[in-house]
Amino acid sequence: MDEMEEELKCPVCGSFFREPIILPCSHNICQACARNILVQTPDAESPQSSRASGSGVSDYDYLDLDKMSLYSEADSGYGSYGGFVSAPTTPCQKSPNGVRVFPPSVPQPPAQQHLLLQPGSLPPIPRNSCITCPQCHRSLILDERGLRGFAKNRVLEGVVDRYQQSKAAALKCQLCEKSPKEATVMCEQCDVFYCDPCRLRCHPPRGPLAKHRLVPPAQGRISRRTSPRKTSTCTEHELENLSMYCVQCKMPVCYQCLEEGKHGTHEVKALGAMWKLHKGQLSQALTGLSDRATEAKEFLVQLRNMVQHIQENGVEFEACLVAQCDALIEALNRRKAQLLSRVNKEHEHKLKVVRDQISHCTVKLRQTTGLMEYCLEVIKENDPSGFLQISDALIRRVHMTEGQWGKGTLTPRMNSDFDLTLDSGPLLQTIHQLDFVQMKVPAAPMLQLEECCTQNNSATLSWKQPPLSTIALDGYILELDDGNMGPFREVYVGTETICTVDGLHFNSTYKARVKAFNGSGVGQYSKTLIMQTSEIAWFTFDPASAHQDIILSNDNLTVSCNSYDDRVVMGNSAFSRGVHYWEMTVDRYDNHPDPAFGVARGDVLKDVMLGKDDKAWAMYVDNNRSWFMHNNSHTNRTDGGICKGATIGILLDFSRGILIFLINDEQQGPVAFEALEGVYYPAISLNRNVQITLHTGLPIPDFYTAGEADPTDSVC
């Protein structure tokens, strides 16, 4: 019952409906609230405001207003509609449920405002008044009846009364924002329950509110329950009760409406009968809605379970991520320690080399300085003989010492710069590229049955990933069996989601399935789809494999040649299983040529008569007789030739491995060839004197399907 409460509250005041009226848009509003949101339009528009309001207005009365609606979410809340309604200039207010409402645009003295709240003492509504539905924002200009033109929603009023009576708990304040307190009073005029703080704040005993009557909450509930239910009367004839139902207008009407009003020519039915009918329709509609509600509840349970699973998986995944990042940081710290150790070693090595050089240079400099000072003192001596005795030795020592300070001696043995550069670029790039990778295999694809089909001996399959699947994938693998309950084999690997497989066997049942794969592996198979290829072959001549002298027309069903030599053309379908039959008619036959009809391998020679090589099995025929030919071996000469209009039939039976020819529905000679196995194409050779038309999709001849005679014994 609590879920229904929003349906029972007025969209303007936010309280339970009190004397609700039905707007033409089918929304409801309290009668007092409807008066409060009325807006007066300019008098100049009064000629266009003469439309009837209330229950007598159909949905079409809104069309003109809707076409000129300039409503915007950025405007005052109800908008200005063409030239019908001017935008209100009074500030908007908000009801308890958040809907914006406008007070009357025409100022009134306090006494008159007080009268607005007194039932039965309502002043007349100004002319050209307009009311806008607070829910759908449709506007309607009222006629001379004003709000009396709208029907009272007695059913809604009764539901509100029953709902309030079912509330056995203590009545709560309707204006408390959080944790509503127990109500202490109820205002009969406002129809609102107040606690003491909200009453002092929102309903002070002064001004127009001083004359409102406040009663205890229990008494207010009783007064609501015992308020008399009024009988529904006609909005146009207030003294008449509603007794009939107008089928065309879809509304209850009174007897006088049928006699004098616009419903006189309309189809009407008894009110009670339509009441029961509509109740049944509503009950039936509620059945479907109830099923949807049940599904929604189950779906909500599923979503709540998903929330719990997401939270659990999120905590687990976060812990895993932190552990992985911590492991990376630890590895980086270990590498950092190793690199620092190398730097320290290089640092100590440089210092040792420089310090050794300093020590060596210091000793040598001291020796050099001592020698220099000694030499200077020797130079000061005045004894020539004594000087000359040692001068040569000193000169040699000076030169030798000077030589010891030669090139490289005064050059540092070690560079002060560190010749180590940390190459962190790849690591930084790797860190920047560090991201989540898909560690799960893809889900099983879904075959789209509405797009899967077979045509002739081709099959087209389409699939997609499940709607909620977010797993990345690299491609799909499509598999088919051999059409004879054999093993599956791959026929397509790629990223496309639709594939056509050609060259299947006719009249065969194939099984197909598809799976997806990514870097983590291969996912599960989809459901297996069973497909049936065509029982009868439909094909045409193949221009791609035909000799260049061949001329095709009639959608590749008619063939001729521009050469006097025989040229070969094959069909675009190959056969390897089943029983197949096709015919060719002679459209033109000049100068008694020898066209050849039969079957051939895909690599048959195209510039000689069919049957000249070992790749073709044929019957060539002139106007009097025919021969069978394979590998240039001519056998079984048979009387009976062809002419213009003749029909040549070819019957290929793989179940028995035989090839039979017919001319004009009669078997020509015995079985032409036996022990046929493998893949064969329909083929024909002809020159410029012949034109042939192909006919396919034909049933097997009756003489062969009946089995009354062995075709090997038939001779024509």
Automatic annotation (TrEMBL):
Residues 168-217, 229-271 form the B box-type domain. GO terms for molecular function: zinc ion binding. Residues 441-536 form the Fibronectin type-III domain. Pfam families: ANCHR-like_BBOX, fn3, SPRY, zf-B_box, zf-RING_UBOX. The gene is trim9. Residues 379-437 form the COS domain. Keywords: Coiled coil, Cytoplasm, Cytoskeleton, Metal-binding, Repeat, Ubl conjugation pathway, Zinc, Zinc-finger. Its main location: cytoplasm. Residues 518-703 form the B30.2/SPRY domain. GO terms for cellular component: cytoplasm; cytoskeleton. The lineage of its organism: Eukaryota, Metazoa, Chordata, Craniata, Vertebrata. InterPro entries: B30.2/SPRY, B30.2/SPRY_sf, Bbox_C, ConA-like_dom_sf, COS_domain, E3_ligase_FN3/SPRY, FN3_dom, FN3_sf. The keyword DNA repair does not apply. This is E3 ubiquitin-protein ligase TRIM9 isoform X3. It comes from the Eukaryota. Residues 10-47 form the RING-type domain.
